[in-house]
Amino acid sequence: MKLMIVDDSLIIRNKINRTLLSRFSKVCRAENGQQAIDMATAERPNVVTMDLTMPEVDGVEAIEKIMAIAPETHILVISALADKATAIKALTLGAYGFLCKPFTERELSSAIERIIDIELCK
Amino acid sequence: MFSTLFGKYRFLVISIALFLIFDLGVLVLNFYTSGKIAEQTELINSAARQRTLTQQMSKATLYIKSQKLQLWVYQSGLDELRDHYRTFGAALQAFNQGGTIVSPSTGLPISISAVSDPEGVAILSRANSLWSEFETAIEPLMIDTLVSDDEIRPASSFIAANNLKMFALMDELTEFFKATSERQTNLLRAAQVIGITLATINFFIILFHFLGQLRVRDQEIQLKQHESDQILSTINEGVFLLDRNMVMSGQHSKQLEKIFLTRKVSGRKFERFLARYFPQKTVNTALDFAKLYFRDHIDTALIEDVNPLKRVEAVITKKGGETETKYLDFSFAILSQDDARQVVLVTVRDVSAKILLEAQDQLNADELEQQMALLTQILPIPRTDLAAFIDDSRSGLDRINLLLKDTKQASGSYEAMLIRIARETHKLKGNASVLNFEMIAQGHHLFENTIEEISRQAKHRTLNGRDFLPLTMQLKQNFASLNLIEGVRDKLGDYVDTSLNHVTRGTPDNRLELSTKKSLDELAEQNPKWFELLAYTQKLAAQKGIAARLNLRGLNTPLNSQLSSELYLIAVQLLHNSLAHGLESEEQRLELKKPSLGEISVSISHDKRGNYRFLFEDDGRGFDYERIRSELVDRKLLDSREAKALGNTALVRYAFKDAISTQQNVDQTAGRGVGLALVWQQVKALNAKLKIRSVSNEFTQFIIDFSYSPSETSSEILDPPSESVLLAS
């Protein structure tokens, strides 16, 4: 199972990677929305963690495009709660769930486990 | 099998099946019996025809005999006899063995079954026996076209003798068929009655069964409804269901009506309902959020964080038009109903009390924090100084309060009133700043901001009492802050220990030109409030980004407390002034070939006759006359030509008026131009003469000469005098 981590913060990318590395056979990382779209096209990850506020292409646009490319992808939005309307828009566009920054490793693991369970039941 | 096939509908299916079976049974029997009756009718008619044929054969025989005797033609009679004979024989044979005969009523061939009933068979047996004799007698007549007397006579005699017997037998057979038909009719009638009765009974069983079931179901529904109503009327949360079309359900809890003060809930569009209480942006977001619960791809356990209706503020309009603000907490949960439809269970909690409690807790915590902060500020301050500060501050606030009360009564001269309030506030702020009471100083600073705002408005329109309301509110807050300090002071009791006080304050470096530690100790001992100015100067200088040292002279002996307060106020204002506009930054001073450390000196001296001299000087940049000029023009007090014509002395005079400051930005210590005006006010209160000397980039010196005895001074605020003694160079 493949994971793609999308966040413009290296610290966050590392934290997510450290927490989830053991659960996935491959982990790829993107630091903006455009990279995420390109990587999703090439790698077809099963699970994506997506920040919303990023340079160039933001998370909402990236979600919309990734869902168009690979509708079966499970996207977990991980973002600060500055704008709930944007987060809801991301969910409406196809994201699976939302995790608020700052988050604990346990919260992240728990959210990802729910997604993995669904993937395994396919 | 039925139970698995039809489940709880088994009874219904069986009942309907029985109903159909009964009806079909009656129908089949009806068909069968009516067929039999029809056949029986044909038999009756056939038997009756046999009876007639018997008579007609007798008649034909007699006719032939009679015609023959008279030598007349008898052929028609012979044909008739032969026809009747064959018809009778064929019918009798059909009765015996079954077969096809011609229907007497329609003339069409019909099939009949052999008579099997013993009674019928017995009649037929006798008829067969007699018919065989008929055949013997008539058969000779059936061969030739001509009949001999030997043939007709015995036949005629036999038929005449047995005609009535055969007639009777056929009559008996007819009656037998009639009886059989009647039995079958009765059987059919009975079958119909039984079938219809059974079907009717079955119908009523179904009817009553379902009426019973409906009654039980209704009772269950009523019970559930009652239970739901009971639950919904007793639960302390607003509860309702939301369907996929974002329509609110018919049932909801009573608490929901209480929360939103409305009964218009059932069947309403969620969007329109929310729009009555929340801004449109919140409504739109909430609606989008609620729709997420009906989306298959969402894990609803992972979206609670984005719920826009968490602890949300709702403005609820009461009946009289008044509004009430509540804090509400909406939570959503997806439910599947019996019919597999999905709805969202929405729970609304009024968390206003909780939030207010949290706010109160926070307030208490803040207050506690403030008290702790105050404690650390109060502890180093000698009790007498603190008491003086509290008394001075309370007196000042009282005076401001009185002035504000006057504004309610007086309709004019608000501007002058504002100036007096501003001066008083500035004085209070200075005192608070020196003692490090940041909270108090900040309160006075905000108060000054408001005064400035009102002053600005006064330039564009006539003020009224309402314009001063913000000041009243802020004054109340400043009183509260002072009360807080007083409360902490009172809780501490007699905390002040002079020796401890000295130890804790220590000796600041680089701030006093007193040559010995003894001199510092004397200063702290005799005039502790002045001693605090040393640390205050360093602190303020650091805030301004400059290096400065304060030198105090003539203060290591006790100073009359009232005089000390008056001069202290002047010193603080001038100190603010020096640090704000006078002293340059270290870089600027080095460029000007000055020592990097700015010097400020305050000295108080007097002769035996009570003639005092208060000297304040700094080695800063001196008066910025051009700045004062531009301020005068900017504030439209003078035009540029008039400003340009003013000499330095006149410019300094203006600087001592309100609202003329050479600092570009207002901060907590300077920038409003109030400080020098306050100094001027104090000078006048002391009935003193003020001399000012200033050399650009060299120094500024304020010399205040006055005579003093304790009874001469007054704390009343005076308006700026029209004349002053100013020396500027």
General description of the model:
The complex is a heterodimer of chains A (122) and B (729). Chain A is of the alpha/beta class. In chain A, 48% of the residues lie in helices and 20% in strands. A five-stranded parallel β-sheet of chain A has the order 2-1-3-4-5, with helices on both faces. Helix content of chain B is 60%, strand content 12%. Chain B contains 22 helices and twelve strands. In chain B, helix 11 (414-434) packs antiparallel against helix 12 (438-458). The two termini of chain B are 121 Å apart. In chain B, 33% of the residues are buried. The chains are: A alpha/beta (122), B alpha+beta (729). The A-B interface holds A 76, 81, 84-85, 87-89, 91-92, 94-100, 111, 114-115 and B 281, 284-285, 288-289, 291-292, 295, 297-299, 301-303, 305-308.
Question: CA-to-CA gap between the ends of chain B?
Answer: 121 Å
Major beta sheet, strand line-up of chain B: 4-3-7-6-5
Helix content of chain B: 55-70%
Instruction: Please give the share of residues in helix of chain A.
Output: 40-55%
Number of domains of chain B: 4
Q: What multimeric state do the chains show? A: heterodimer
Rounded average pLDDT of chain B: 81
Give the DSSP E fraction of chain B (strand runs of 2 or more residues). Answer: 5-15%
| Helical stretch tally of chain B | 22
Radius of gyration of chain A, in Å, reads: 13 Å
> Which series of helices and strands of chain A comes N to C?
EHEHEHEHEH
The CATH class designation of the largest domain in chain B is Alpha Beta
Q: Output mean pLDDT of chain A.
A: 91
Biggest interface reads:
A-B, 19 and 18 residues
| The CATH architecture of the largest domain in chain B | 2-Layer Sandwich
Topology:
The complex is a heterodimer of chains A (122) and B (729).
Chain A: E1 2-6, H1 10-20, E2 26-30, H2 33-43, E3 47-50, H3 59-69, E4 74-79, H4 84-92, E5 97-100, H5 105-121
Parallel strand pairs in A: 1-2, 1-3, 3-4, 4-5
Helix pairs in contact in A: 1-5, 2-3, 3-4
Chain B: H1 2-6, H2 10-69, H3 75-97, E1 99-102, E2 109-112, H4 118-138, H5 149-234, E3 238-242, E4 248-252, H6 254-260, H7 270-275, H8 280-292, E5 312-317, E6 323-336, E7 342-350, H9 352-378, H10 383-409, H11 414-434, H12 438-458, H13 469-492, H14 498-505, H15 517-526, H16 528-544, E8 548-553, H17 561-582, H18 586-591, E9 598-606, E10 611-618, H19 625-634, H20 640-645, H21 648-655, H22 674-685, E11 689-695, E12 699-707
Parallel strand pairs in B: 8-9
Antiparallel strand pairs in B: 1-2, 3-4, 3-7, 5-6, 6-7, 9-10, 10-12, 11-12
Helix pairs in contact in B: 2-3, 2-5, 3-4, 4-5, 9-13, 10-11, 10-13, 11-12, 11-17, 11-22, 12-13, 15-16, 16-17, 17-22, 19-21
